[in-house]
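Reminder to self: tokens first, then the designed residues, so the page reads top to bottom the way the pipeline ran.
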């Protein structure tokens, strides 16, 4: 029974990882195609639906961590997925004025390259029990460039959206109301920006630590790594 459950778990995780991999591959293809055909202004329109699907699918990763399907700590995945969902839905989907900015291109390309590598790495591990050292190296090295470009794009787009958030008063709840509660999306977005200040270096340092461990194990155990 235990062996059957382990096989079912691996099969599910393999399907999940490869499905999301293909989603991000689609995002990258559409982004580069739009960039070459019509410039950065057309990138968001080309990738909107696959971007929303691929990024929202990451919510399952939080559930995987909570129920013990994967070993990744929820404390590491939750902030990253949360911030990306905020940008995907709370900024780009909610405020169309941001969609033609050049930062959308750097955001989408940084995210998709990172995720294509990450999901193919985990998908290969689930299918074959290990991943080639070249894929492991990419998984734990590409973030050195992709994380700063991705984070800079996220922060830039939230900052650009602030003027539109303030002008529209979208998602704001004003007093008086029957709940005796108020909410200002403009100040909530500023709070999100402030969280990036300690959050980004912390996440980058965490990933550097992971890289050191994984690269070391790669050299210790040969050409493939579990």
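Designed residues (226 positions):
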């Amino acid at each position: 029974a235990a062996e059957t459950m382990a096989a079912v778990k691996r099969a599910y995780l393999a399907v999940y990882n490869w499905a999301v991999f293909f989603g991000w591959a689609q995002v990258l293809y559409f982004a580069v195609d739009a960039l070459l055909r019509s410039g950065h202004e057309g990138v968001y329109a080309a990738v909107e639906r696959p971007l929303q699907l691929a990024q929202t699918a990451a919510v399952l990763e939080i559930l995987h961590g909570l129920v013990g399907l994967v070993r990744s700590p929820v404390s590491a995945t939750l902030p990253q997925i949360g911030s990306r969902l905020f940008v995907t839905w709370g900024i780009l989907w909610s405020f169309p004025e941001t969609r033609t900015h050049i930062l959308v291109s750097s955001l989408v390309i940084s995210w998709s390259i990172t995720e294509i590598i990450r999901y193919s790495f985990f998908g290969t591990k689930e299918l074959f029990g290990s991943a080639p050292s070249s894929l492991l190296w990419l998984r734990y090295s590409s973030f050195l460039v992709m994380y700063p470009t991705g984070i800079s794009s996220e922060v830039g787009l939230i900052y650009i959206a602030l003027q539109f958030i303030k002008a529209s008063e979208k998602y704001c709840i004003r007093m008086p109301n029957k709940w005796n509660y108020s909410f200002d999306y403009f100040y909530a977005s500023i709070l999100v920006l402030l969280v990036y200040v300690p959050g980004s270096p912390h996440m980058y340092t965490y990933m550097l630590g992971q890289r050191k461990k994984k690269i070391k194990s790669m050299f210790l155990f040969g050409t493939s790594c579990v």
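The radius of gyration is 19 Å.
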